[in-house]
Amino acid sequence: GTPSFSPKIPRSRPLGGISGQAKTKGHRASGGLSPHDFLTLSYKIGMLAHRICGGRVVSLLEGGYGEKGLAECSIAHLEGLIQANINASLSHLGVSELTSLKRARNTSGEAKEL
């Protein structure tokens, strides 16, 4: 399963302060994390960033042992941050705004459902 993530960050709206080492399955010093684990952890970091520092995240992924694993986990990392940004942005919209947006998208034929 996905490792637990419970940061101890002060409520002073910091600019940064999360670091760690996350190793993929198959890495020679394996931490056993899957791409889904990277997605989940990145999503949680993104949502936390929206709560404490306006959604600002700077991330750095380092690799070199397994190109396939690095590529998969890099994509999952970005997907997690993007999903967090979308969810945090939508949570700021009111119900009437969401209804209008859904209606507008349905009439244009671009999307059936939001």
From TrEMBL:
**UniProt xrefs under InterPro entries:** His_deacetylse_dom_sf, Ureohydrolase_dom_sf
Query: Disordered: where is this region?
Result: 1-34
Segments forming a coiled coil: none
Identification of the protein by name: Histone deacetylase
